[in-house]
Amino acid sequence: MTPVKDQGSCGSCWAFASVGDMEAQYQINKGNPSTGIDLSEQNVLQCSGGSCSGWYLSNTLDFLENSGTPDEACNPYAATDHPCGTSRCSDYLSRTYKITGWTWISTDTANIKNWLYTHGPVMVWMPVFSDFPWYDANFWQYYFYGHSPSGSYGGHFVVIVGWDDQGSGTSDDYWIARNSWGTSGGDVNSGYGGYFYMTQDPTNGFFGIYQEAAIISDITVAIVFYSTPSSFVSASSPGSTAACGGTFTNGQIGSCSSSFSATANLPSPSTGWQFDHWSWTGGVSCSSSSANPATCSASGGGSLTAVYAAQVTFVTNPSSTASIDWGSCSGPGYGNGQSIFSTSYGSVAACYVPSGYTLSSWSCSGGLACSGWNDPTLVTFNGPGTITLNLKTGSLTNPVSTSLTASASPANPVHGTSFTVSGTLTANGVGLGGEQIVLVFGWTSSIVTVTTQPDGSFSYIATAPATAGSYKIQAFFLGDLGGSTQYLPSTATATINVS
Length: 499
Prior knowledge:
Layout: H1 13-30, H2 41-47, H3 57-66, E1 69-70, E2 96-99, E3 102-104, H4 109-118, E4 122-129, E5 152-164, E6 174-178, E7 195-199, E8 213-216, E9 219-228, E10 240-243, E11 246-248, E12 252-256, E13 259-265, E14 273-286, E15 294-317, E16 323-326, E17 339-342, E18 347-351, E19 357-369, E20 371-372, E21 377-378, E22 380-393, E23 403-404, E24 407-409, E25 418-427, E26 430-431, E27 436-441, E28 447-451, E29 457-463, E30 469-477, E31 490-498
Parallel strand pairs: 9-15, 15-22
Antiparallel strand pairs: 1-2, 2-9, 3-8, 4-5, 4-8, 5-6, 6-7, 9-12, 10-11, 10-13, 13-15, 14-15, 15-17, 16-18, 18-21, 19-20, 19-22, 23-25, 24-25, 25-26, 25-29, 27-28, 27-30, 30-31
């Protein structure tokens, strides 16, 4: 059992009994009495339909099966009624535990003992009378013989965790029950850490135990499923994961038991894709990072990511002994027509260019984007595609002239509203990506720096001045003389007429 809690002055015993049983069942199923699990009763109190005036155990358990509850730190106990979601963490869905089911059980004494022995704790209802808070748990006979209850406080939910049979033919057999009134205060809790004894005699003891008793099945935890590479900018996920009774796309949350199988499904269409490996965080782990399907386990909330590889084909134009490599020419690179499946991308470099040839430009197709003369040059990805190294005879003339354009849309913005400054940086008709453009606005001393995209384009959302009039926006490319190809500076001007 997890540590006993205190429901305070709120009549939320129904929440504490169900959550306490849930925590215990989780540890039993894990075979670990020290998991540290601590779930939120406040979330159950304020979201299941109940209140500090009480609630039904059946409704509570249905809520824990359908919606679940996060950890205590996500929604700490406040011992008062609040609207659902009050003081709850924003990522509660990824921290939620659920039960897979529950059932009423026969309240026959032998049956309850069998469930305790074979399954675990049992939630029960009992009437509470005015003298119960001061009942000394050591002298359990107090409720065994001739006790006439009076001054009822109403119903109370507790959890039976065990029993002790004093001897055959005696009436001194008792249940061991877990309360939710803390571990100090009234005699019923003092010295027993929040537990108390109660007779198994159906004519006394719990009285109402023979009307209501329930047990919980397995516990599930929240797992966030991802598909990567995350650098892909497509609106849809690269793939999906089948696990835990559902199919999940990137960022979706599933409820999984302690052991589950996960299958990575390729994107549709699947041409140019293949599964590469799994990665996981938190309480999730799998027996193999490369197996698909994978056999996984969950000791707590976490994430499982299916990492996919995209096919990249390399082309040298014209075909030659040149090759293309990632980042720098540290290896043999990839020659004309070669292709690989890769999960890591970045910049590419022209390697082993034969004598008499020089770099003309880069071009990409399919799900790849690149352009310009830079060597190496940046490649961005949205799926499988081709990278082409275009060569030409002769040598490149340095420095190279550049051309910069700039425009504003709308050109006649209303004062204080947003508009977009955009343009393109090219050299000999080829876009220059990864270069810095400085924007100077004629109505302020502030300057803005933006970076060109692989095709040489750039854009920036600005705010029109508060005063009407005609204003200039100047764009500057300060040049790039540090690489093997040197680019000269260039400027452009755009005008807005503010109303």
